[in-house]
Amino acid sequence: MKRIVVTGGCGFIGSNFVRMMHESHPDLVIANIDKLTYAGNAENLADLDASPRYQFRRGDICDREFVKGVLSEAPVDALLNFAAESHVDRSILDSGPFVQTNIVGTQVLLDACREFKVPRYVQISTDEVYGSLGSEGFFTEETPIAPNSPYSSSKAASDLLVRAYVHTFGFPAVITRCSNNYGPYQFPEKLLPLFISNAMEGKSLPVYGKGENIRDWIHVLDHCRGIEAALLKGRDGEVYNFGGRTEMTNIALTKLLLKLLDKPESLIRYVADRPGHDLRYAIDCTKAETELGWKPQVSFESGLQATIDWYQQHADWVQRIRSGAYQSYYERQYGQRLSAT
């Protein structure tokens, strides 16, 4: 590989992936496309701004001419699509942006990659497309998709578009699906950074329902290593699941966080459950382990403590997001003013 294009590289998983690839592939040029909506933070990759191997291109993946312009700058060995509207609660309030970015944006990227004959396309998806599990069993790559939220439905639709392009055009694409990620640079509306930040400030931790929903947790760097493995070794048309083999109820995780932060359980505040809240997600990642030689390397105990440490050491990062000050970074660095989002 000489040049890859990453979409949504200023988000949580995307920025961790860009940084990892920049460090582990010293001959690689990375072009990062990001619209910089509310969850896109250019400051996440401030340490790469001076690198000649990192190129930032602000724009919308739904803008066909913009995407084609980035692809035409130099030959592209792969495009990885991280760009997505991803917060379930926001999709319940307004599904429009999810349909536009997650479905239309994917279609634009697929067409552009076909036109420029990009030899590898990786669609970053989610285990939420499979729907909800009962108390037993695991999601495999053969599990029928049955999404239950506007967010997961839009991701399932984009996955089906990728599948159709593989079948119809022989398009060289793979799809990755992953369980809940945690780690540094996660936007503080999500459970772990929200709860860690609130607990540090002595604020309440809002737990949906009785907190009995179960999620499988994986460190973001383990996920990024899985995406890299799928990029380099994945077979065209295949789906690869990544999970951390760490299932936990939301209330158990909340109580563990409070214990590690030495905060009282009285901070827990039970709130009305999310509409259509899936009960359980759990990933069987045997296929990725067997075909790609991948396996999770970060134990949940060490990863969670490292995540807590990171947010404690970067409380100013959280505050800049909460105040909106983080949006001025792009203007300061690139000399352009962010448009209203």
Descriptors:
single chain, 341 residues, alpha/beta, Rossmann fold, seven-stranded parallel beta sheet, three-stranded mixed beta sheet, 12 helices, 12 strands, 41% helix, 16% strand, globular
Secondary-structure blueprint:
Layout: E1 3-7, H1 12-24, E2 29-34, E3 54-58, H2 64-72, E4 78-81, H3 88-93, H4 96-115, E5 121-124, H5 150-169, E6 173-178, E7 180-182, H6 191-200, E8 205-208, E9 214-219, H7 220-233, E10 239-242, E11 247-249, H8 250-260, E12 268-271, H9 286-292, H10 300-313, H11 315-323, H12 328-334
Parallel strand pairs: 1-2, 1-4, 2-3, 4-5, 5-6, 6-10, 7-9, 8-12
Antiparallel strand pairs: 9-11
Briefly say what this structure is:
The chain has helices at 12-24, 64-72, 88-93, 96-115, 150-169, 191-200, 220-233, 250-260, 286-292, 300-313, 315-323, 328-334; strands at 3-7, 29-34, 54-58, 78-81, 121-124, 173-178, 180-182, 205-208, 214-219, 239-242, 247-249, 268-271.
Task: Provide a descriptive summary of the structure in words.
Helices cover 41% and strands 16% of the residues. The protein has helices at 12-24, 64-72, 88-93, 96-115, 150-169, 191-200, 220-233, 250-260, 286-292, 300-313, 315-323, 328-334, and strands at residues 3-7, 29-34, 54-58, 78-81, 121-124, 173-178, 180-182, 205-208, 214-219, 239-242, 247-249, 268-271. The strands form three sheets. A seven-stranded parallel sheet has the order 3-2-1-4-5-6-10, with helices on both faces. Strands 7-9-11 form a three-stranded mixed sheet. It has a two-stranded parallel sheet with strand order 8-12. The chain starts with a strand and ends in a 7-residue tail after the last helix. It is globular and about 55 Å long. Helix 1 links the parallel strand 1 (3-7) and strand 2 (29-34). Helix 2 (64-72) packs parallel to helix 4 (96-115) and helix 4 (96-115) packs parallel to helix 5 (150-169). The longest helix has 20 residues, at 96-115. It has a single domain (3-334), classed as NAD(P)-binding Rossmann-like Domain (Rossmann fold). With 341 residues, it is of the alpha/beta class. Pfam families: GDP_Man_Dehyd.
